[in-house]
Amino acid sequence: MRRHQPQTLAHFDTGQQAGYLHLDPNQHAGGVGEYLLHRMKPYLPPWIVAAGTGILSLPANLMWDESAAAAVGLTLASLGLTVATWWAGKPTSQQRRLHSAITVAAGTSWFTAAALAGPAAGPLPSLYLIGGSALAATWNIRQLLRVNPEGAGEGADKGLLEKVGLAKTMVTSATVQPNKATFGLQLPGGELTPDDVSKALPKLASALRVAKNAVRMTPDADDSSKAVLTVVPNDLLKAGAPYPGPSYPGGSIADPVHVGIYEDGADMAMFFPGDPDAGRNAMHLLGMGMTGSGKSEGCITALDEVITRRDVIVWASDPAKAEQTLGPLLPAIDWAALDIKSTKAMVNALKAVIPARTSWLAKYGYKQWEPACAGVQADGSPGMPYLIAWFEEAAKTLREIDEDALTGIAQEARSAGISLVVSLQRASGAQMSTDTRASLGSSWVFGLRDDRDAMFALPDEAMDAGASPQAWKDKRPGYCYLTANGIPETFWATPGRAYLTPVDAITRNVVEFAGIRAECDPVTAAAATKAAGPAFTQRTRYPLPDLPTADDGRDGDEDGGIYEEYEENAPVDFDYDLNPDEDGEDEDGWIDPDAELPPVERVVEIAPPEVPPRTRVGANEARKIMAELLAQFEAEGRTEIAPADFMEHCDRFRRSRGWVSGQVSEMVDAGRLRETDEAGRYEIVPLDRAAA
Q1: Residue 481: its H or E element
Q2: Could you tell me where the DSSP H helices lie in 127-213?
Q3: Mind listing the pLDDT tens digit for each residue in 234-263?
Q4: Residue 277: which residues within 8 A CB-CB, separation 6 or more?
Q5: What is the DSSP string of 157-182?
Q6: I want to staple 295 with a disulfide (CB 3.0 to 4.6 A). Which of 128, 446, 500, 543 is the partner?
Q7: CA–CA dist 469, 453 (Å, integer)
Q8: In the beta sheet, which residues pair with residue 229?
Q9: Which residues of the chain have pLDDT under 50?
Q10: Strand ranges (DSSP E) for 273-399?
Q11: Which H or E element spans position 563?
């Protein structure tokens, strides 16, 4: 039966467990002689080598006695073996390398002299007995000191840590889970700090043969000579994170907003309002991720959670993609600004509502917004819901308005029960002012192009702990880090994956929670009206969509689109009354079921309208049809198109408007379309130029 090997850092090295010698006197149940032989076995090899060297010297002396050529050959062989031993010992410790070279040099020198002069000549017998025994004993001592049944693996751990520049670091504890190992590190005081461990993380990942962001470090908050090393060998997020539905349906926005899962299966959640009992401030959030990283899908997931709460309203802006991203959510958004003009009005309105809302909170004795604010107050006045101002694709907003446009809002809005969310691909100094970025505080970071981009969004603590979104780029959509208020720092460098919420689920949430969703309060509305005028009072309010039912022949596909199922031979119902005033119906509309039917005077044949049979089109075929349509538009000489041009042909690929908008976005990412200055219009890029 195999004995259990204690888990150590070395067990992750190259996927092979290092071999450690465990001496167990109870392993053999024989007599005393067998027991002693068993205990001596590990220490016999050096003595066997020494004895073999002495025995081999006898035939060597008979063959090469006083031979000049043999003297030269044996001397060169002795020197060569010593040099080879020194070279081969380079990967080992300096002590072992030196010990091995000295042993080989001494042994080969004695063998050369014994082969030429005879093993009994001069001092050779004494040198053999004393020197050979001493060298064999040194290897026994070394082996005896290396074996540590109580702490097996420590030597291998030290070797690995020494290799990556963390010499003298001790592994004080180890916790091993199915796909996660955590090691407590005790650093040599005054020599190493957690910063040194952070710098060594890439080398550790290479030594353990795992991904760069699979090795992370968390410093001890109370002792700078301690740190915790976490190793996650396998990426369990590859399977995706299916949307589980609303986490707190009908709850308060003060409840956590679930947006995804961490690599260990824990929920990834963010908190918008503050909580003085938990010591948490309200959140301003910076969302960042390169094209194709899944940032927009993650933001849609977060907003989809928000609209299922009873005490929050959303003001959202996206002048770059207009309805393409926010489309399914528009009926649940109180104010949607989908162009630069209305976005400017929204920014001005936010500046005006901050003092109005803070005055209201002070009037009713609230130090900050809390769920009670949304209810009817003691004097009977209506409550004030929380306000989330979400600026999607904010680079265009900041470019067209001013990079400092949101700075004052970010600095003052928290106390007014407002959370500001700014989402863009790259929060560099050219896009956003340093003051605005510093005021946002929290960040939700998806795949980025390089580590310089990561520094714009992630705090130093997360970067030092091993967070590296640049390792994903756009290859793993939805992978992200969340460093936000209420999230323990131990999770800041832990990878997660945002839910991919299908469009039909968003539509269902928009409709089902419409009855409990809050309306804009009078105080906020009055301040916004004064600042933005008709841009607010005449803002577009989008109607609720038709909700698919289980028996209306509609279902969701793998892309989240909603399509209609038609039965090819479905019966047509013509059971309607052509002439409600005929005999058999009185003035009250009552029909006597026992009355005789009037005689048939004439027969009218009504043919049912021909409905062409429709079959379900797969996602790949639908994408192919989209590409064919684009090629058709291009062949017609058109240079610009809109998503509506594709939607005119929806019957051909049986997909929803949201799905079509998503495919248009993918065409933009692929280079076949290019955004224009007019929202919702795209320039067609010729295929040869797009492929270049």
Answers
A1: strand 479-483
A2: 133-146, 154-163, 194-208
A3: 777 887 778 888 999 999 999 999 999 988
A4: none
A5: HHHHHHHTT-TT-EEEEEEEETTEEE
A6: 446
A7: 9
A8: 183, 217
A9: 1-7, 13-29, 149-154, 156, 550-589, 607-616
A10: 284-288, 312-317, 335-337, 386-391
A11: strand 562-564
